[in-house]
């Protein structure tokens, strides 16, 4: 018999304890005979929570009945965190086990779920967290930064999701769903805010029925921030860290009858401004604190800093009701027409420093051409009965050309390396749900994937290409998952799930400083169990999950060390385990609170792995005979052990409307910036708070509010470079603003 780990035993114990843990609540509700479905159909009374419907299993289901650890952000929660023109990085810490960061600013986010992600800044990087926007996977990291506006909801699915979602989902999925056109009538909204540093955020949408069969929805976003950081090396004027962004989405619905539905979507994004501002020697030697004379509004760089991005895309979603089954087709196309992000990476200059700047580093990432095409066909059962199923096929085709430039102190380009990657993949998948009894449902899924990458370097100017000019990799894998959901009573359910995941080999592009590298495919086996409950006659909702996972051959990115390059490696094994909890509810009909937390423990297990050490930092890991840092036993980069989120909202009904105050707080514990541990490159714990005071009237049709983000102005180093000096970058500053929004 296979020996069980301690965590596996805990999971089995939890599944046995969950029914007993709910008996106390069951006793207080012994006279309640409604089914979960009937409860969901009840109108929501004052002081009761709405039923949350998610599509974690590709069907609309009550969140309580889904055997996955999943969170949803929608309505006011989204509006609050986006009020000041924030990008997708604002999602960091807003749900359990989710972190988002970037060393490139607004356009290249990196997602981590349960500590599992990828710190690679290469334009060809792959990530184990999949981002899906309107049913279309956004594979390239630059595509993952498309702005959040006119959204119906954001779902965060934790753990492997590879059975039902295509492309690299071993860590989980972040799923965006935009608001859809409707035939019901003309409606829409407008949202306008102004805030610190000349920040403006203008957002709006209009839904227009064109006939009894056609409807149009147009959505737009405009964001701007003034330059507010001065460059003391040049003229000292505010000339950096501003941005201009606009994005549009047009959707057309065709619904001629009750059996066919067609939804057409075209969208684009244009962003100009600055890349991430690196500031030289802002980290105090021997600690992870900012230097005493740190000035957030001043840099001393002698290089250029700018960023330009244009993306365009479209998709067509079709559905047919064929009686016993429904057929779906999702066709997606995404493209990058321009991407150029240039920065002075050393963050200083040889004259004024500040501090010691051993050598100058100014680089740019360029991606002038990317095209991604996806196609999925899916069929699902419709007939009522104990068994339901769905099956489908998926195709992915990406063609990307880009690379990197290096510049000298005069700003002239000294080298360029351009490569092309063609990635094709296809998959077949299916899943079955079976209601063993009215209370117990079991689910199983299977997916076969074939993934092929062809990589070639097509230009190497001003440098001698190191390593091979072409790399080819192809792998196939069958993944599966098995889960069970048990309805303890109409308000409480427990679940357990075992799932596997797969990420195809990744290829790291060459540069003037290093060759192309390849990391072999990685696999994950994840165990999870949890309980979900509606409490106190639906005045509150709570969930708890525990998990344990093993990643074999995990793809890791060695960033920096002794040069400004990335290199891909595989770790023999990575362990992860933890717990996630969420609760929200009404203390009174006018006072609503929510809280969530997660604990994530990660550990690299590979005694053979070592990496180059930093230039000036204080390493705390062992150093081997070759002078390299041994990383065995370290936590994964950007993987905080603790994430906590708290929200409270109080409402005062008035004669003509409602006055309210809302505050939200997020906390994450310390993180490692790199694979090795160093005193200077361990990000200190970060707490950010928000405040919102407002008034709405005419049933919430209109609202005006004053808001603040990061109201304590806590500044923390959130990333660094390690190959030159003690250069770092920090989180966003405090922001105050006012907002006006209305519905029509």
TrEMBL record:
Record PROSITE patterns: TONB_DEPENDENT_REC_1 (PS00430), TONB_DEPENDENT_REC_2 (PS01156), TONB_DEPENDENT_REC_3 (PS52016)
Signal peptide: 1-24
Biological process terms in GO annotation: iron ion transport
Protein name (record): Iron complex outermembrane receptor protein
Lineage per the UniProt record: Bacteria, Pseudomonadati, Pseudomonadota, Betaproteobacteria, Burkholderiales
Motif (TonB box): 51-57
Species in which this protein is naturally found: Pseudoduganella umbonata
PANTHER family linked: FERRICHROME IRON RECEPTOR-RELATED, TONB-DEPENDENT OUTER MEMBRANE RECEPTOR
Keywords from the named record: Cell outer membrane, Ion transport, Iron, Iron transport, Membrane, Receptor, Signal, TonB box, Transmembrane, Transmembrane beta strand, Transport
Top-level lineage group: Bacteria
């Amino acid at each position: 018999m296979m020996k069980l780990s301690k965590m596996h035993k805990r999971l089995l114990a939890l599944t046995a304890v969950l029914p007993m843990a709910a008996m106390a609540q069951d006793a207080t509700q012994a006279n309640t005979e409604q089914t979960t479905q009937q409860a969901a159909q009840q109108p929501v009374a004052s002081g009761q929570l709405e039923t949350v419907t998610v599509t974690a299993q590709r069907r609309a289901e009550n969140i309580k009945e889904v055997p996955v650890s999943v969170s949803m952000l929608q309505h006011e929660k989204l509006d609050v965190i986006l009020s000041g023109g924030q990008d997708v990085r604002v999602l960091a810490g807003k749900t359990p086990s989710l972190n988002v960061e970037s060393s490139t600013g607004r356009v290249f986010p990196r997602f981590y779920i349960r500590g599992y992600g990828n710190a690679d800044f290469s334009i060809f990087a792959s990530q184990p967290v999949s981002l899906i926007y309107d049913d279309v996977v956004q594979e390239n990291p630059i595509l993952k930064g498309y702005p959040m506006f006119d959204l119906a909801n954001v779902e965060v699915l934790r753990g492997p999701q590879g059975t039902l979602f295509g492309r690299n989902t071993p860590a989980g999925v972040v799923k965006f769903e935009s608001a859809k056109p409707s035939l019901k009538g003309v409606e829409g909204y407008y949202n306008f805010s102004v805030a610190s540093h000349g920040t403006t955020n203008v957002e709006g949408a209009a839904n227009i029925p064109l006939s009894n069969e056609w409807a149009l929805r147009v959505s737009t976003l405009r964001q701007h921030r003034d330059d507010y950081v001065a460059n003391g090396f040049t003229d000292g004027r505010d000339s950096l860290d501003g941005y201009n962004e606009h994005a549009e989405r047009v959707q057309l619905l065709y619904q001629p009858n009750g059996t066919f539905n067609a939804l057409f979507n075209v969208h684009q994004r244009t962003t100009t401004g600055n890349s991430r501002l690196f500031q030289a020697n802002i980290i105090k030697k021997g600690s992870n604190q900012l230097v005493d004379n740190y000035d957030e509004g001043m840099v001393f760089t002698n290089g250029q800093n700018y960023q330009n991005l244009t993306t365009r895309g479209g998709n067509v979603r079709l559905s047919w009701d064929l009686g016993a089954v429904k057929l779906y087709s999702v066709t997606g196309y995404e493209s990058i027409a321009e991407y150029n992000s240039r920065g002075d990476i050393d963050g200083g200059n040889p004259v004024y420093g500040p501090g010691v700047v051993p050598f100058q580093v100014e680089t740019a990432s360029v991606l002038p051409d990317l095209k991604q095409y996806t196609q999925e066909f899916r069929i699902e059962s419709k007939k009522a009965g104990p068994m339901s199923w769905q099956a489908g096929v998926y195709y992915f085709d990406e063609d990307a050309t880009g690379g990197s430039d290096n510049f000298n102190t005069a700003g002239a380009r000294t080298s360029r390396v351009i490569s092309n990657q063609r990635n094709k993949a296809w998959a077949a998948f299916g899943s079955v749900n079976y209601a063993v009894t009215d209370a117990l449902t079991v689910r199983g899924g299977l997916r076969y994937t074939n993934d092929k990458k062809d990589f070639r370097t097509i230009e190497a100017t001003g440098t001698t290409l190191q390593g091979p000019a072409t790399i080819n990799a192809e792998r196939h894998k069958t993944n599966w998952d098995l889960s069970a959901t048990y309805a303890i009573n109409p308000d409480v359910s427990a679940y357990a799930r075992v799932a596997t995941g797969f990420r195809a080999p990744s290829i790291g592009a060459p540069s003037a400083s290093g060759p192309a590298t390849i990391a072999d495919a990685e696999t994950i086996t994840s165990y999870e169990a949890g309980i979900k409950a509606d409490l106190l006659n639906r005045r509150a909702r709570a969930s708890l999950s525990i998990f344990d996972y093993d990643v074999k051959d995990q793809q890791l990115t060695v960033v920096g060390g002794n040069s400004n390059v990335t290199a891909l490696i595989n770790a023999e094994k990575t362990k992860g385990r933890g717990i996630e909890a969420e609760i929200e509810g009404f203390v009174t009909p006018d006072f609503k609170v929510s809280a969530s937390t997660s604990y994530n423990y990660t550990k690299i297990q590979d005694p053979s792995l070592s990496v180059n050490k930093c230039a000036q930092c204080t390493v705390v890991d062992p150093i081997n005979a070759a002078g390299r840092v041994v990383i065995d036993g370290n936590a994964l980069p950007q993987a905080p052990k603790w994430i906590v989120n708290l929200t409270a909202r109080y409402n005062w009904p008035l004669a003509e409307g409602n006055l309210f105050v809302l505050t939200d707080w997020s906390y994450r514990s310390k993180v490692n910036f790199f694979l090795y541990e160093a005193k200077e490159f361990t990000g200190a714990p970060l707490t950010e708070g928000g405040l919102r005071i407002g008034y709405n009237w005419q049933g919430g049709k209109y609202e005006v509010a004053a808001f603040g983000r990061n109201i304590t102005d806590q500044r923390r180093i959130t990333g660094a470079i390690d190959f030159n000096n003690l250069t770092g970058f920090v989180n966003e500053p405090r922001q105050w603003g006012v907002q006006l929004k209305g519905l029509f």
